[in-house]
Amino acid sequence: MNADFDLFIIGGGINGVGVARDAQGRGLQVGLAEMNDLASATSSASTKLFHGGLRYLEFFEFGLVRKALIEREVLLRAMPHISWPMRFVLPYHKDMRFEGDTPTSKLLTTFMPWMKGRRPAWLIRLGLFLYDNLGGRKILPGTRTLHLPGSKVGKPLKGKFKKAYEYSDCWIEDSRLVVLNARDAELRGAKIMTRTKVKEATRKDGVWHITIDGPDGMKTVTSRGLVNAGGPWVEDVIRNVARQNASEGVRLVRGSHIVTKKLFDHDKSYFFQGEDGRIIFAIPYETDFTLIGTTDAEHNNLAERPVATQEEQDYLLAFANQYFEQTIHKSDIVWTYSGVRPLYDDGAKSATAATRDYVLSLDDNGPPLLNIFGGKITTYRKLAENVMKKLEPILGGQGPWTAEVPLPGGDFPVSQVSKIIAELQDKYPFLSVCWATRLIRAYGTDATLILGDAKSAVDLGEDFGATLTAAEVRWLMNEEYAVTAEDIVWRRSKLGLRLSSDQIAALDAFMAKAS
Q1: CATH 2.40.128.110 fits 250-343, yes or no
Q2: Do domains 54-62+84-169 and 250-343 have the same CATH topology?
Q3: I need a labelling partner for 104 at 20 to 30 A (CA). Which of 6, 286, 322, 450 fits?
Q4: What CA–CA distance (Å, rounded) separates 254 from 339?
């Protein structure tokens, strides 16, 4: 039986759109359905980092860390507009401790009981040596030791911190990563359907019959293969949509973040270790703010929208206040966000200890169903390649191709961001540095497609505030699947931090009229 699609994907988070882009580029015809907006759940609620996971070394997850470290620079080269190198400062103090259940902690407790769970400096340096060398580095600089007193990075910290280690990772605009993968998949021929819920998927006549309910009503499409990239809803898709059995499952872990007023005047981030063994980051955010997170809390009810609870906010404030000289108060918090991470359930005792690696489960009893459990944003491209490796013998298609191909707007070298911003200002003199920087950091070289032949800001149409114009809004609606103001101000951008409720309401009204 001829099918509408070679591969149909349920879920518009990073794993789903990553698979869609990869599969479409191999010559397969792909369809994807997302019941809400792209990146509306886990994939817009990360700590915004491409990183190897330094703390995973304590759990002996060397394979996962190595894969992530290798992938870090591959991704950086493919998306220099939405990802960039970042240096992390890890202050050291003798009171720093392991979380009690880590393999490293147990090993040291056995052989060095006099340490009483403390993290010795030599062990941190060993971990950073491994972090520098497990995956190889061509772009990012390695670790160095810092003397904090009198330094710019030491100034915001309490005086007891004299020494720190500085290492490299990368920032990533997570929601834009999802949108650009979806856009690239569609430019290559995929059909991306947002606000479209998959109601049922049934094997019949050698293909999947998939009932979808979207803006155009209910209909049934067929596909030779099906990928379940439901994230937190992966088990629900298996049991209630595809009506299959699976032995694997996910552990739902809530990660919450707070955004505060700007806490320090430099572009480096902090990696803080707590006396409870956990870690948090404090990261420069959207120029005028600081991002602090994350927590690890069990989240057992998917019907309950994840929010940063008061307890979690207090925890993050107390944690950060162990390090910063100037006390951060609740009144300094300007925004919070929270997401549910669908970690593969490996039976770990705590949410923190649960693996961040992914598991791909293929059911080929008839037309294939591949279920994705877990994963992390840094390894999404490799996950997609491995999905296709499992499906290729059944569905066919060409070989891997995504490693050296930039996402839309990312066709320039990592080192040329400042040059690209300057060139945009030269072409459009009415742009301020902040405005041009925001456009390049969001759209890269595609910024010129939004600005067109505009000679002044007036040519871009209605001004909604914070440099958001009607021309950009139309682009986001026509090219990036935005339907509501929330899609734009909290996912396609973070302009919600700068726009008033009245401005956001005006944007919503404009979009409703324009749709």
Answers
A1: no
A2: yes
A3: 322
A4: 6
